[in-house]
UniProtKB/TrEMBL annotation:
<keyword id="KW-0378">Hydrolase</keyword>
<comment type="similarity">
    <text>Belongs to the uracil-DNA glycosylase (UDG) superfamily. UNG family.</text>
</comment>
<feature type="domain" description="Uracil-DNA glycosylase-like">
    <location>
        <begin position="49"/>
        <end position="211"/>
    </location>
</feature>
<keyword id="KW-0326">Glycosidase</keyword>
<comment type="function">
    <text>Excises uracil residues from the DNA which can arise as a result of misincorporation of dUMP residues by DNA polymerase or due to deamination of cytosine.</text>
</comment>
<dbReference type="Pfam" id="PF03167">
    <property type="entry name" value="UDG"/>
</dbReference>
<protein>
    <recommendedName>
        <fullName>Uracil-DNA glycosylase</fullName>
        <ecNumber>3.2.2.27</ecNumber>
    </recommendedName>
</protein>
<keyword id="KW-0234">DNA repair</keyword>
<dbReference type="InterPro" id="IPR036895">
    <property type="entry name" value="Uracil-DNA_glycosylase-like_sf"/>
</dbReference>
<keyword id="KW-0963">Cytoplasm</keyword>
<dbReference type="InterPro" id="IPR002043">
    <property type="entry name" value="UDG_fam1"/>
</dbReference>
<dbReference type="GO" id="GO:0005737">
    <property type="term" value="C:cytoplasm"/>
</dbReference>
<dbReference type="InterPro" id="IPR018085">
    <property type="entry name" value="Ura-DNA_Glyclase_AS"/>
</dbReference>
<dbReference type="InterPro" id="IPR005122">
    <property type="entry name" value="Uracil-DNA_glycosylase-like"/>
</dbReference>
<dbReference type="GO" id="GO:0004844">
    <property type="term" value="F:uracil DNA N-glycosylase activity"/>
</dbReference>
<feature type="active site" description="Proton acceptor">
    <location>
        <position position="65"/>
    </location>
</feature>
<dbReference type="GO" id="GO:0097510">
    <property type="term" value="P:base-excision repair, AP site formation via deaminated base removal"/>
</dbReference>
Amino acid sequence: MNVRIHPSWKSELDTEFEKDYFKTLTHFVKNEYDKHTCFPPGPEIFAAFDHSNFQDTRVVILGQDPYHGPGQANGLCFSVRDGIQYPPSLINIFKEIEQDLNKPMPETGNLERWADQGVLLLNATLTVRAHEAGSHQKMGWEKFTDSVIKLISENKENVVFMLWGGYAKKKSKLIDSSKHLVLTSGHPSPLSANRGYWFGNGHFSKANEYLTQNGKAPINW
């Protein structure tokens, strides 16, 4: 399985890749991809780390699980491929951007354009079996992605972390909020958003304001 990952991340994560749990995880994932249809496609498992290199990463958005329907997942949380119908959570993300920044609904749900600007779109679990949500959880991915969050927190400064929903909010304990901006809100899923826990959070303007104040370029959301 030929995965793509930017060299800057490879050097930062080399010691993690050598740990026993990660070798066990790798064996599990290879076995799953050999026997079942899994998403995202093998080369895109580490797409979040390929588009946004370590040095340029200035925003982290945390998702939970890749989409498990055909043709949706492209290795970036909340993102779908060009031409794929927007899932409900992504629609609500775009609606919030529309309200917050007065930007129209984009023509594609593919968020590579964010990732290429230094937005790490990180799912806590990087793979999933087709049509079986959560099927690759608790196999080691969460341990790996927790270590990524800690790595960014410890080795970088003035990064914006967007934690949406209960699961993501728990990750705040991994982040040094004295040198990073941690933004939390309800999840953009319809269940949470329609109860008033998502819309109006202003995360996208707050992120850009913080980045600008700290001498970094804002994100073109």
